[in-house]
Specification:
Chain lengths: ~350, ~200
Amino acid sequence: MNMKTLAQRLAAVVGVVTMLGFVSINFAPSAQAQQINPTAQSVTEDSLFEALQGDQMVEGRVSIPDGLSSGLIKPGNASWASTHSGLVRNLSIAAVVGAIVVLALFYMIRGKIMVDGKLSGIRILRFTAIERFAHWLMAGSFIILAITGLNLVVGRTLILPWLGEGAFSTLTVWGKVAHNYVGWAFMLGLILSFLVWVSHNIPNKVDAEWVAQGGGLLKKGVHPPAKKFNAGQKVIFWATTLGGAALSFTGFMMLFPMLAGTQADWQFYQLIHGIVAGGLSFIIIAHIYIGSIGMEGAFDAMGSGEVDLNWAKEHHSLWVEEVQGKADPASSASKGTQPAE
Amino acid sequence: MARMKFLCDADRCIECNACVTACKNEHEVPWGINRRRVVTINDGLPGERSVSMACMHCTDAPCAAVCPVDCFYTTDDAVVLHSKDTCIGCGYCFYACPFGAPQYPKVGNFGTRGKMDKCTYCAGGPEADMTEAEYVKYGSNRLAEGKLPLCAEMCSTKSLLAGDGDIIAEIYKERVVTRGYGSGAWGWRTAYGEAVTV
């Protein structure tokens, strides 16, 4: 204890002596006094950038009430700009063009997937009015959102040159307004769809068999069993639910930037929004294909809500057994105009 | 043609905010919009420095690169301007700008931004020079009158310099050599890809 104290005292004495030495050196020649550098401790841009490791912002204090303006230089913003005009832009283009190319090839090789047997003429209810409402609310809003969103990414390159600056600006302003408002319809459709379909979309053993047989998509006459939704549809359901939730959350944050936090947060949400939108667009284009020109009889499910019995037996065999087991087969088919055989 | 730039000599800036006030007054900038601001680094600590910052009129301006409607253009004097008629107020330029220059009036529901406003280097906009239409949207056009930006012209310590990049860099270098120190040309490396080295 005593030794320590002694050592500390010694150190203090040495320190004081050293300081006095420096002070005396500095003060002794009065001619050198004017050469004391008053900025020896001043901040220089170089040293600050170094301390902030190049990419972080140089921040200070501002006297204006807007606290967000206290950032002086934000070199990191360049990385948002390059990701936005690079990676996100390329991914979006690749998603849309890629989906169309892949589907065009698929159509040329596989052709339209027809019902193998004859259409029975008996129609059974596949989607109720509520289910169809939820689907079309989500689908319609998604298409508007996707097109107005894509316009922000490629419109400048594709549309601006032939529409001209004024008209393109007007179009894009309305696109922005539509995007901001239609987003709410999409969120409502997303929640409704989730509620009406989630119980049918829990993965199970049947899905493994469906995947093993390639969903019957690749070969004619192959029809793996499936319940109300097959594994492919479950993938679309979960991609839409999770992707849609991510889009809704990030979009909400961009609509209310003051809730989201700082500029770095806005940039993050914007990039996630763009990447998820590109990915989901790819999946949805494929979904639109198989639900329209890609498969005979598929559109009816979401169109009138009623599908042909033979189509249903081929594509959703277990589901047909379920619904027909519940009710008398004859009465379940009685909705069709033709009598059951 | 000259390559116009701003240079703030932070060793001279006394944070009087007269540049901010002059800018607001000259262009009748609305409440809540700040084309120029003074940021104090290490406030209250030894070596504190204040820097007056606005749009730096970057070489290869990142705002112009990310604008979805391509509303930016660069004049012969290398001043970066934009068309408020074309701007859609998306905010991408603010995301991209390293200097926090773009400002937006709040005009509608949600986070809807109005047309972007920023420092024009006192050079107006795409409208005909010194017209009422140009003044209402962008403020006065001093460059067309043969004058430099007012913020720099009336800076009491001549901290803020505006003019041809080579000339103001030369003035700054001379100052640094004469007085023996300089904290650097703030923002130049980020805006023009080169620092002023003495």
